[in-house]
Amino acid sequence: MPTNVNPTVRRRRLGQELRRLRELKGMTAEEVAERLLVSQSKISRLENGRRSISQRDVRDLCGVYEVEDVRIVDSLMQMAKDSRQQGWWHAFGDIPYSVYIGLETDAESLRVYEPQVVPGLLQTRSYAEALINGALPEAPPNDIDKRVSVRARRQDRITDPEHPLRLWAVIDESALRRLVGSKQVMIEQLEQLIELSQLPHVTVQVLPFDMGAHPGINGQYAILEFPDAADSSVVYIEGVTSDLYLEKANDVQRYSVMYEHLRAQALNVEQTRHFITEIVKGYTRPSVD
């Protein structure tokens, strides 16, 4: 695991511990909010790790929960301090999906299904630039550059020699057929996809059109898993204006089962490489007028 403190994961872990303490006390979030004269939504945001938490908040909550062990309080206070540090992505300014980046940075494995585009961690810079330009036609050039740079920085997890991210990607055929940028951009992208798929910690499978209906028909999602048992898995669903994070065991299990069906229906690794190679040939073949 990376040695730097990850504020996103610290917030999430702290929130889980505060929820556990509340439940041990037998109190509802509404009751805690009334005791502290704050909104119930604030307590919920603190517990789900979506909001920074101050050491004062931790102190007040420990008081409500009557935590008498000083070591526990000190540990939670330190976690609150760590959670307010900035991750590497903050250097790029306001990133709309910064919560996801924080989770991805600390994850041990990632299973992703992409129906429309090549997964971000496997994209070439040219493909990413063309893709973001197309998706955000009104975005200024500096915003496009920032997003591309962040995407490139995220890919360090794939090439990390000591703690590489275990990536399993199931990609719909449409993502390989959609012309993003130019034929040359697509050739470079698909060739890189084949190259990266040969890394021992990267698995790529293509779900061809002729497989018909499948469990991923409703859209993209990713499942992140972490090395620490205290950190529950997360299902991430990207949205246009907001993202969805599912952490309940039943939700994660449901999406995990769906993913197993996707992997079973997709081409195997060798078939996938051959399939992508044939698509590359199609891009290199001269067009007939």
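The record above closes out task 2.4. Task 2.5 opens with a second protein, given below.
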Amino acid sequence: MKNLKKKLSLLGITGAGLLLLSGCVQTHIVDGVRVPTEAATQGLTYQILVKPMSSFVDLFANNMNLGYGWGIVLVTLIIRFLILPLGLNQAYKSTYMQEKTAYLAPVFEPLNARLKAATTPEERMAAQQALMKAQKDNGINMLASMGCLPLLIQWPFFIALYNAAAYTPGISTATFFGINLGSPSIVITLIAGIFYFLQTWISTKSMTPEQKKTGLTMLIMSPVMIIIFSFMSPAGVALYWAVGGIVMVIQQIIITYIMKPRMRQKIEEEFKHNPPKMADLPKDVTPKSATQQGLKNLDAPHKKNNKGRNSGKQKRK
């Protein structure tokens, strides 16, 4: 069963990587505009993902006469809200394990301290095994919260939206509130950055000091990367990320102010009826060093001499 889970996890990670790579549509410059190559437009990714999404954008932009800017906004909102339950489900699993681990910090603290203080491979191995056993005994399994299925389902939509915003014919020459969607825009880049920083800030509101210390750097990296990519991309793509940032903020509000309080109450009730299992500290398994053995050997002659002197005294008596 364990081997099957490992194989499925590996398959999921590999599949996610392939989907990520498949989103790279080959492009070239034509009349100063970056467009997909002829070969790329005939490719599987473009035909199955990008082309239908481009038609969806065209539906709002041309058929409803809303323009390409609003077309990108509406399509992004529709797709993001459709897959929001998947994102919330994945976030719930990972956040629940994080909250449970934080609640059990007093149980794991001595084991973590022993692991940090380990000076030999044997001590480190014993401490790691003890920590893993304590986590298992108390129902902690971070790998269980890292399921690949929700990510695999979301990736095609993200790939299609990104490429549709970048390469739908007509977007490169369209404007949105006076902003040229075919060129980088500082305004839309700042809007995208603000929403992703806001999402990060909200996520830290319910974190413990330890969680902030360990996770803040990773959390900040997301908005920074969005700003860099938005500034390097056409405004149509940055607009897609900005609208996606709005949905991310909504998702984070649900997680922080609705899910987390309920999680903590559930965890308290769980351990109220089933108290945490305290772990035993690992035994000192460090092998005796040659120096210690040498000291014992040095002590041996003295013991013999002491015994000889005592026996001589006993004879004289």
